[in-house]
Amino acid sequence: MIKVNLNSFIFIIFCCSTPLLSAQNDNSQSHFTGLSLGYSYSFNGKGEPQYHLLDVQLNKALEGGRHGGGFIYGFGTEVVLNANRFTIGPKIGGFIFYNGLAIGSEFVTYTDFENWTFRYVFSIGLGSPKARLTINPQVILTNKNYRPIHKGFVNFTWNFILDRKNETKTK
């Protein structure tokens, strides 16, 4: 009898099913401008405050193609909803999407207009140019003593399409 552990089984199923789920019959693509609205939950250990953030971003995107991928880039801000002082985080960044996976990075500057900190945010999760659910660990680059939020959070973002341009490419 052959024994297969659970990780190997999941890996084999993933490798076999990915080409079946991703193939499309056309190479159509669409470019669009969007307004992303999102919610982030920043958590740490017990006894630490839990922060809630509103994420607003204006972006450009490309989606479609044979395997349903795309990318998105833009600028926006995060607003900490339950901080002691009004805190915002202007940011710029982008994401790449392929077969339901989302990988991205952003640069964010959190400030309460007395202190500030500059951070690099790496994001990984599930998503498409229209919606994504990601885990966002942060690398604090400057002013490590100022911590308006913790060093990471979970984010859900929905992208509302403002202007779409479709194009179909032939093989």
Run of helices and strands: HEEEEEEEE
Helix content: under 10%
Q: What kind of sheet is the major sheet? A: 8 strands, antiparallel, barrel
Number of strands: 8
CATH architecture: Beta Barrel
Description of the structure:
The protein is mainly beta. The protein has one helix at 6-22; strands spanning 29-42, 51-64, 69-80, 87-98, 101-111, 116-127, 131-140, 152-167. It has an 8-stranded antiparallel β-barrel with strand order 1-2-3-4-5-6-7-8. A hairpin with a 4-residue loop joins strand 5 and strand 6 (116-127).
Keywords:
single chain; 171 residues; mainly beta; Porin; eight-stranded antiparallel β-barrel; 1 helix; 59% strand
Short structural summary:
The chain has one domain (28-165): Porin (Beta Barrel). The chain contains 1 helix and 8 strands.
Give a topology summary.
Elements: H1 6-22, E1 29-42, E2 51-64, E3 69-80, E4 87-98, E5 101-111, E6 116-127, E7 131-140, E8 152-167
Antiparallel strand pairs: 1-2, 1-8, 2-3, 3-4, 4-5, 5-6, 6-7, 7-8
